[in-house]
Input
Amino acid sequence: MNTEWMNDESLKEIDKNKLEFLQALVFESSKLKKEQLLPFLMNIAKRGQEKNINFSNEEIEAIIAVLRKHATAEEITKMEKILAMRNKNK
Output
């Protein structure tokens, strides 16, 4: 996925550092196998905490909607797996 999604009008209120952090997440996770996702997400969470990157539920919903518009079917499937893990751990 390219960085085009970060320029979507509905994301204009979200800090660019947060969007760049997510772009790195998407890029780094693209080659992972299913069993590698959870350790990867835990590492990402730690990196986010170290950089004080937190997302409100509204930001998450807006970002997911935009990513879906720009993602391939394969990328959407991976996002859904990640979201399912996130929702399971709430």
